[in-house]
Amino acid sequence: MLLEIWQTVNQALERSMTRVIHTVGKRFERMKLKGEPITVTTGLKESVIQRRMRIVNEVTHASNSKVNTSASTKDLRECRELQDFLQMHCISTHYSFQIMKCVGENPCPYCTMNPARLPDDVLTGLSFLPCPVPDDSGVHYKTFQELKLNCLGVWKERG
C-alpha cells in the first residue's frame, strides 16, 4: 500500500516537473559561452540510476545497504570495495571523471561482465586523457600534442 502511494506520488511529481524542466532547458539553450551555445541535457531517470547501482553492487560485491541511490558521500567513501574499484579503474579531476577497463588475463568482475571492445594490444597503449592546461596567453588551452604522459598515467606539459 505504502509502495503504491509512493509510486503514484513519484509519477505525479515527474509529470508535473516535465514542463518546468523543458522550459528551463529552453532558456539555457539560448545562452552562449564565448559565442558558442550551451549544450543542455536532461538528467538520468531513477530507473536508469537504479540499474547502474545494481551493476556497481555486483561488481564490488558491496552490500546493497552500502551502495544505493540514497547513500551519502560518507557511505560511499567507507565502502572499501567501491574505493578499490575506483582506485584501480578511475581518475577524477576537476574537469572529468574517466574509467578505464582492465587489460590482461585476469580481469575484475566489472570487466568480465563488460569486456573491452578493443583488442588488448590497443587497450594496453591507452591512458587517461589529460586535463586542460591553459596556454601562455591564458585565453586558449594547449593542444593535445603539447602535453605528454608521465609514468603514473597523468598528463603534464612537455618541457
Task: Describe the global form.
Answer: flat
Distance between the termini: 66 Å
Compute the gyration radius: what is it?
A: 21 Å
The strand order across the widest sheet is 1-2
β-strand number: 6
Derived from helix and strand composition plus strand pairing, the structural class reads mainly alpha
Provide the succession of SSEs. HEEHHHEEHHEE
Number of helices: 6
Largest sheet: 2 strands, antiparallel
> Could you tell me the strand content as a percent range?
5-15%
Q: Helix proportion of residues, in percent?
A: 40-55%
Mean pLDDT score, rounded? 78
Low-confidence stretches: 150-155
How does this model look, in words?
- Helix content is 43%, strand content 10%.
- It has 159 residues and is mainly alpha-helical.
- A hairpin with a 5-residue loop joins strand 5 (147-149) and strand 6.
- Helix 2 crosses helix 4 (80-89).
